[in-house]
Amino acid sequence: MEESEMNVSEKEKREGIAGELADIFHRQSAIVECNSILQFNVGNAKSNRFQKMAEEDEKNLKMIESVINSFGLRVPAKTLAETMSETLIETVSDESVTPLEQLALYTLTKQNQMMCCHLVHKSAQVSAADIKLALTPFEGIYASFTKQVAELVVLTEEFGVEWLTGEKPASGITGRVRDAMATVMGAVLSKTAKPFEEMNVMEVLAIEHRKVDALFKEIESADDHESAKGFFAQLKGDLTAHSIAEEDTVYSTFKTFADSNEKMEHAQEEHMELRSILDEISLVLDDEDEFSARVEQLKEKVQHHVKEEETTLFALIEKHSSKEQQIALSKAFLDEKRVIQINVGTDDIAASAANDRSIGTNTNSNDASL
Ligand SMILES: [Fe+2]
Ligand SMILES: [Fe+2]
Hints:
mainly alpha, 0% strand, binds fe (ii) ion
């Protein structure tokens, strides 16, 4: 809306936000009511997880209520929010409805809460100072829904499959890794509260670096060796795609500056070394001690590399590019990474092929060149 800003008066703006707050409050009350009716007929372990969620829901309800108080304008909830809330309560109280359907509607309502909290949070950013202040807690409320939605996806898999098929879900390591990562990324993203398209290349690289840190932690604290191997596969795929995309877009761009060339060459060499170690680890996957030792070695090297990148490389990016170029570069990096992920995947052959690459094979020079 930057170019053709709609003419919304201050009064309309406040009423609009008040309406969203009323809807969120209305649905949240219904969610809290549901939590007491509903245990989704699940076993103890899962009940505990619902119990935790229910406690968080009550806390959020109180937070929303206090935000509405400090916002200072109270309007009735809209018809759709009322209908959704009523339908939710009716559905979970109706014994002829399957638990899977109940869970689906419950999840949908929480997704809706997540979206609306995000909307309120983003609207606050472009509003007057008093609105901004009153709505500050929404950053945390939004983060909490993001986490809950990720958790509900896992719960749906865990017992939805059983309800539907009578079989236990396959304990796919990749699936579990993906779930864990969704939660990690949800938490990271909710902190930045900014979509990827609005981030500059340094913000995007930093988020990816934190994801790699998280994966090392997952490998170290995995319950069993099979899970550790699963997390390693994810780490290898991520690190390979990240490093190649970095070379093709970021390094190749800044290599052209006299004061940066040597540093880019050095970073490129470190990438090659990291990818060799990744390959070597793939050869000792089933030797638990050797695997752990090599992963530890890899972690130290990655940490050293990332530290250099976030100081030296980021300083060069700041020095040699404008804000617009930094955003364009982040897009180029993400596009390139997407292509690599599609083409490379996480298999060993592709990863070792990637290791033979040399700097400057930029396939995306239009977006990235300064
Ligand atoms: Fe990096
Ligand atoms: Fe790097």
